[in-house]
Amino acid sequence: MYGEKEGTVWDRVGRPHRDCMCYLGPPTLMPIGMRKSPDVSPRRLSDISPQLRQLKYLVVDEAIKEDLKSSRSVEDINSASIEERILRITGYYGYQPWNASYKKDRIRENVVGTTEAQSAGGAVGVESGSSKRKLHCCIRVTTVQVRKALWGVVMVMCVCSSWAGSTQLAKLTFKQFDAPFTLTWFATSWNSLFFPLYYIGHLCKSPERQTPRQRFRECCRFFGDDGLTPKVFFTKVAPFGLLWILTNYLYLQALRKINTTDVSALFCCNKAFVFLLSWIVLRDRFMGVRIVAAILAIAGIVMMTYADGFHSHSVIGITLVVASASMSALYKVLFKMVLGSAKFGEAALFLSIVGSANFVFISFVPLILYFTHVEYIGSLADIPWAYLCGVAGLLFAFNVLVNFGIAITYPTLISLGIVLSVPVNAMVDLYTCEINFNTVRLIAVFIICLGFLMLLLPEDWDQCIIQLSTKLRKRDEPAEGSAEAGTTTGLNWRGRARTSMSTFAH
After folding, report:
1. For residue 456, which of 289, 230, 253 has the smallest C-alpha distance?
2. Cα dihedral 272/273/274/276 (nearest 10)
3. To the nearest whole number, what is the mean pLDDT of the chain?
4. Can you point out the beta strands (E) in 60-142?
């Protein structure tokens, strides 16, 4: 810190000292006996060579000596060059040997230097330890993958049985209770149980337990900063509720017209419709394999219609199930475009709101259909409540597995359970003699299922195949080299062994 007069400075005890000195650091650490540096900072240390000559007898402060003892000895400091003393004392360019990070760097450099000087046997030991750690990590990752795969097998069986079971049970229900919209309303109302079921899981798993009201408010942030307002409900929730009801109603209407095998197979086309709508509306990545899958799905629909000879009864049923698949695809694409991706709690809240709104606002429709005899029920005693609850329960279980099953397994395996419901329904229809499996129908079902499986391929499936083939090719090359090694001489073997050892050590 400079005084009032030029050349007057204050030393560490606060006494003014008249001298010329060089300002190389903070004023409180400025050594005494140096000339003042010019106004322009020097570019190189050689520019202040007159000042550097005065550092010949520079004495290191005792406090700094104590700090430097942990990194390098004081004798080493005194024997260092003048430039190095400046760098150490002033901390120029971050050169602070007393800092903990610098000591770690120095220790790391020493370890690296020592490792490079080690023998080949020591290097093998280090690499073997590293290999053991990598092997342990690989085993742990493989265990996680095997666990998810095992859960995936269970999920495939549950999804397949719930979807096929609900389809077959709904077909049986219509023989005693021909009211598809009432069944749709009754099954959709069960969705109100999603959020209570999720909250029970939250209490069992989450370390920070929240009240239902707190959890509800937190999940409502999914709809925006204002939460679930009337405007949000009528603009973002009600349209999806209508699409949900239309999807299930058209699917159940199709079951009244055609057999369950055709309905379940044709509904698998919704995956192709999702891709086409995502490509057009959401501008998703174009993939040739998915275009081929969409073409196969459309060809399967045409062949399925041709299988029954284009009768009006079957054409209406096929049209209904294709419309149901289209509504399902529109629901998924619009949900992604309007609301984006949802977490488990947010998805549970959304489905509960859809079910509750269906129970509150759509209850008058079954009543109107009953009094107009569009869906004649008879008396309450004639309603097969066991069938109704069975269909609603299986559909609810299917939706729970599809929406929350990705927490324990892969989404592809869940989708695989849907397509496996087609052969299950075919076996049931064949056993009950409700279907005639001609060649055209078998080809149509096979083409639709093949297109569905092609749509399950990831976006980088071609790169994965290329990488897999490259790894297999590289794995075969050492085997060829080892086969050639048996025919070489002992001198070549020793040379090859030395090269491998040096490579392994590095």
Report:
1. 289
2. 90
3. 74
4. none
